[in-house]
Amino acid sequence: MKRMRTTIALLVAAALAAAMLGAFASASSASRSTGEKNIVETAIAAGRFTTLTSLLTKAGLADTLATGGPFTVFAPTDAAFAKVPKATLAGLAKHPAQLKAVLLYHVVPGSVTASEVVKLSSAKTLEGSSVLIKANKGGVFVNQAKVTTPDVMASNGVIHVINKVLIPPKNIVATAKAAGKFTTLAALLKKSGLAGTLAKKGPFTVFAPTDAAFAKVPKASLAALAKNKAKLRAVLLYHVVKGQLTAGQAMKLRSAKTLEGKSLKIRVKGGKVIVGGATVTKADVLASNGVIHAINKVLIP
Q1: Does the residue 59 lie in any domain?
Q2: For residue 53, which of 101, 126, 103, 3 has the smallest C-alpha distance?
Q3: What is the pLDDT of residue 35?
Q4: Is 167 domain-assigned?
Q5: Within this chain, do residues 179 and 254 fall inside the same structural domain, yes or no?
Q6: Which of 126, 141, 151, 283 could crosslink 28 through cysteines, CB 3.0-4.6 Å?
Q7: What is the pLDDT of residue 300?
Q8: What is the value of pTM for the model shown?
Q9: Are strands 157-162 and 71-76 parallel, antiparallel or unpaired?
């Protein structure tokens, strides 16, 4: 009976996935153009990317996207840019380097059509960092932005219309600090001498205990650990896996080798990922050099 329920659940999941992909493919076919104009000309002709094209010109990227390629552009509409505070947008426009970085974070080398996008879990942008890609019954998402119109074809690539502006992530340590719930972890990384490594190198996957998770550890044990640098490093490295491992990828694994040397057991229960006895409470927090998954317990080698 249990096997039958599992089989039925898998068939339902497969049917939903097939329906989603079919709908996305249909939208893709409907949105295809002749592709006679380049990416910039296509964006201008569409009439809803005036802010994007203006910023491309200001950043000195318009010629590149008009004559180079092929490129895949995840293009925020004017409505998407309208969600960004005016002061933020104005400040960005005054800093060419930052503006260029933000715009290049929307561009992937090569012409990646909708049918290829849905097979990816991430894609490296021209900015250098990767965007995470998720496809489910709700649609296709690039980070937190939804693809509203796929496959607007151009002579030198393809445009996928999105409903939010993408912001390049910071490194793992900076991202953890900015989240505001990993202060203990950030402090211990600094004390152990690992902060520099996780800030500059990678990519890494960090199963990051929250402050609430560290609060479950007896104060005496935590104080003793902080005084023993070798043990502290071992504990912290036991939370780090080499490479960028998304939640979707982790769910397909039974274990993952950590930088400490030992492996973490991985399983899925009730739709949640369990890593070494800790539950992933927030998955896929993207960083420029990897990804963070928040967990509710501190892992001990």
Answers
A1: yes
A2: 103
A3: 65
A4: no
A5: yes
A6: 151
A7: 95
A8: 0.79
A9: parallel
